[in-house]
Amino acid sequence: MRDKIVSKASDLFLKLGFKSVTMDDIAGEMCISKKTIYKYFCNKEILIEESTEMVHKTVHEVISTIAAKDYNAIEENFEIRKMFKEMFQVADTSPLYQLKKHYPEIYQKVMNRELDECNKCFKQNIEKGIRQDLYRNDLDIDVYVKFYYMLIFSIKENTSSEKESTKLELQALEYHTRAMATSKGIVELEKQLLKIKP
């Protein structure tokens, strides 16, 4: 039951926002009493913490699945972006922006957790791109990882609209890729951009 509550709460938080979803809403959606929820979670903050952890695990499992497929490094980044867009498209307000605004302590924990995971993913992607001759081999990998992380998370936490955030993230991905790409990489980037043009 505990996992079911976390799962349902995660869905609702991402769709409707961490602030606006109440324990009553979650109980109503699950056709259980609020008392049942309080049996497992003494307050909403604990439920939010567990929900963000569940979302984090799900996201990184999907990223690992995408990374294990036979995509080249640039294609891989576009596939990951597509996955994020599909996962969070239901929300009007960026979940991370809401978390930062209404639950700063939980937000800080989420960011500390994301820092290591994301940096590892970004680094592996750059190394893969260099091996495939899509990214330049003279890159200072750690610096580019840091730049991209700062860019993406600055957008996520400072843009309230999820739609606007998605648009800016695509521009950040293009900017990041162009900065690293070889001529072969530019060709691949243009190919990926064409696929998502309306």
Automatic annotation (TrEMBL):
Keywords: DNA-binding. InterPro entries: Homeodomain-like_sf (IPR009057), HTH-type_Tx_Regulator (IPR050624), HTH_TetR (IPR001647). Residues 22-41 bind DNA. The keyword Ion transport does not apply. Residues 1-59 form the HTH tetR-type domain. GO terms for molecular function: DNA binding. Pfam families: TetR_N. Gene3D superfamilies: Tetracycline Repressor, domain 2 (1.10.357.10). PANTHER family: ACREF/ENVCD OPERON REPRESSOR-RELATED (PTHR43479), ACREF_ENVCD OPERON REPRESSOR-RELATED (PTHR43479:SF11). This is TetR family transcriptional regulator. It comes from Flavobacterium gilvum.
